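Run: sequence + 2-oxoglutaric acid -> complex structure.
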Amino acid sequence: MLITIPDLLPPDVVRQCRAELEAARWTDGGLTAGHVAAHVKSNRQLALDDPAGARIGALIVDALGRNPLFMSAALPARILPPRFNRYEGGEHYGFHIDNAIFQVPGEPARIRSDVSTTVFFSNPDEYEGGELVIQDTYGEQRVKLPAGHAVVYPGTSLHRVDPVTRGVRYGSFFWTQSLVRDDGRRALLLDQDIAIQRLIQSGADAEIVAQLTGVYHNLLRMWSEL
Ligand SMILES: O=C(O)CCC(=O)C(=O)O
Ligand SMILES: [Fe+2]
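>> structure
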């Protein structure tokens, strides 16, 4: 399931983050790629301990926690601290699948990358190319969103970033371990949650809403891992 989250960050926050990203120290992104991905990766990234990245990352994680669509779609158990990249002058990231397990920096814990997210920090008219192309069951989805918007997609999917041939594409990318590992089950739970919200808005009988809400929680109880 591929979900777009509009306005995750408001324009004033995006402007402040952009200024910090433009002034930050960027390093070769190939250095953090796995053996296979290193061959197809050409971009730049912030160091994992960069203070600007840590500040903006905390803003992102905070905004995710207050976003009902992200919470309902990703059902997060743990979010890896957000990372940051930039592409320009033909830089790109060829087709790959992300690592399944990531070490949480500075902690013994590891997370499973059930859900991938990109938050855009450049507007589409600022650069040419740079689409995030995600293969799903319906074919290729080409994603290029306004700054402050995010896309959430299954960690299991093959994806790439097309070459940026004009301007600069700034973004944040990170992984979430979900309470529900399987993307199909998460999609069913999201559908049911949205349907229940719509029933409530339409003034439906409270007993029916309670019954369906009970089904939601019982499915979550059956499928969740803590
Ligand atoms: O830049 C992006 O939107 C995605 C980056 C990516 O796929 C990765 O770093 O694994
Ligand atoms: Fe990736």
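>> summary
Residues 85, 93, 98, 118, 132, 159, 161, 171, 173 surround 2-oxoglutaric acid (ligand 1) (CB under 6 Å). The mean pLDDT is 96.
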